[in-house]
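Human: I would love a firmer grasp of how sequence relates to backbone shape in proteins. Take your time, and here it is.
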Amino acid sequence: MNEAVKQEILETIERYDKIIVSRHIRPDGDAVGSTKGFVKVLRDTYPAKKILLVDDDFSDYLAFCGGEDTAEEEDYRGALLIVIDTGTRKRISNRNYQKAEKIIKIDHHIEADPYGDINWVEDFRSSACEMIADFFMTFRDRLKLSAEAAGYVYMGMVTDSGRFRFEGVTGETMRLAGALLDLHPDTETLFANLYTEEPSAFTLKTHVYQHLRITEHGVAYVYMDRAAQEALGLTLEAASSVVGELSDIRGSLIWVAFIENTAEDNIRVRLRSRFLGINDLAKRYHGGGHEMAAGATVYSEEEMYALIEDADRLLGAYKSTHEGWL
């Protein structure tokens, strides 16, 4: 079925002279890499078409990838819109997406909102970039693939898979990554931008280690209130990244970062896990995502502690019925 869908997507792209590509709000490496790489290949392959990358949001973390385009009202008229790595329409980072004539959805999240006229969803993939790499390789005789495009897509595969460590990485993932590397992207510059840190980052790590808490059954969590964000000079996005600092605590199979968001009067939640799923937990708190990587939102500290208690019960139940986890 998906081979037919990929063929339909390519044929649809070839029919349109105006194409707009968008992604999800608060874009991560997968969202940026998949859209940047896709746009680069489309522009190289179809130079006569007008192809725009439109994103109402911005990522400081990935600013090295460059800026995006601005679309006018006329650009949407009779246009094809391709939305990548975005499970639901409310997370599309393009307030005008409905003005396009036709929408294609390409996504690797659990299907909850089939908003596209064409929906290509493979929730078993480790990243949307893995799907884009597959698309490129399926039609490599018809598309112009460059080292620059390969670098963007490889970036998304690397970041969304935790450098190929997370569940969901398969032999096919590695074969597609290898095909991208055969195009000789500049991985040295890529990794220097992704994984070297400003000295201030180590101050942040210190703060996290000093303020993290661990529940009875091993849920590790930290709360980054507005005062901490201001003291450390953090953007909301940078504060959200602290969830990764909790991932290496032995016995803590669920880890959570709570980030106070005064602009929206809520608390953002970043949930991660190992071995057991937390997507259903996220759904109970206004969120969702992947089985072991999800986001949510709570609207008070009382609700935050309720989520922590639910996570602790979930982990306690898992540990009581499973052995050999560590």
User: Anything to note?
Assistant: The chain is about 40% helix and 15% strand. The chain has two domains: 2-194, 199-321. The domain at 2-194 is CATH 3.90.1640.10 (inorganic pyrophosphatase (n-terminal core)).
